[in-house]
Predict the 3D structure of the following.
Amino acid sequence: MLSRELWTRIVNIIERDGPIPFSRYMQMALYESGLGYYVNGLHKFGAAGDFVTAPEEGPLFGQALAALLDPLAETLGPDWTLLELGPGSGALARALLTSLDRPPARLLLLEPSAALREVQRECLAGLTDDLRGRVEWIDRPPAAFDGAIIGNEVIDALPVERFAIEDDGPYRLGVGVENGRPVERRLPADDRLRAALAAIEADLAAPLPPGYRSELCVDLAGWIETVTAPLERGAVVLADYGYPRREYYHPERSTGTLVCQYRHRAHFDPFCWPGLTDLSSFVDFTAVADGLVAAGLDPAGFTTQAGFLLGSGTLDRLEAIEDPAERARRTGEFKRLALPGEMGEKFKLIAATRGCALNEAPFLLADQRDRL
């Protein structure tokens, strides 16, 4: 029902205004009020949802982040603030609050969706009164603060432009309607898309060839500027799946990286069940690094999730678990997070600072800054 209602709304816009860019379709499919995937109140995370993120696997990812942030908290003092972007199920917030030796005075959860706020409240309900009292929900970036900003699997959900390279230049891929069904349409590339593609190709060994199709997030730098502007002193840590630019736009990756998730199954038809299917695009981490620098931040590290977990002392924490059954559960969790065939290599973490230093050790075991 939700999918049909959302598609009707999209069709009405297309019939009135003509084909729309894919970025607008993705924005509506994910965030249209009451109907989009992330705001319609249906279950998204964990075994009963459509996908599992690192924090839903267990506490290890949050513990590794806590090991990174504790020295920063000592530098910043007891009034430091932690801002989480797109907190999902609330599992990462819970793991951080229970793992940090120096919990933040405020944990701000930037979550516009009322439905997801309720999911997060339920997840955090078991915390002590003191820790729960530190949590605040916000729907826009806060006033200036000293602290840290974290975001796990947030950038991949930002709407992207899809494009195709042809003999006469680039085209913007859009969405039209034919016999009541969504179809792909080729639209003229606007100035922003052309400028963004020119910047990408300047970093590549050769121009993208005719027939090449992919995605890019033209609003990424602006988004980074907006969410990091309140940070006066502290660090930004972003985790997601993706590649440095030359790997993202590799000649063999000629059909793009857009992926859809429904009930733990990946498919590649973004027009299937809009509002019921997650749409995401892999992240161009070179663009993220450029955006962080443009926002006035200093690069502090870039590594794989496996390297970050190992560099953060995760194996030592596993060995310290006395209960054999619990150690076995956490060892299985570690394998899912760190093995190359699981999440270990596909997921990356990038960090930047403003006005202070960050412990680089978790980023050095598998340092990949030279690949950016």
Q: What stands out?
A: The chain has a mean pLDDT of 94. The chain has 15 helices and 16 strands. The first strand starts at residue 20 and ends at 21.
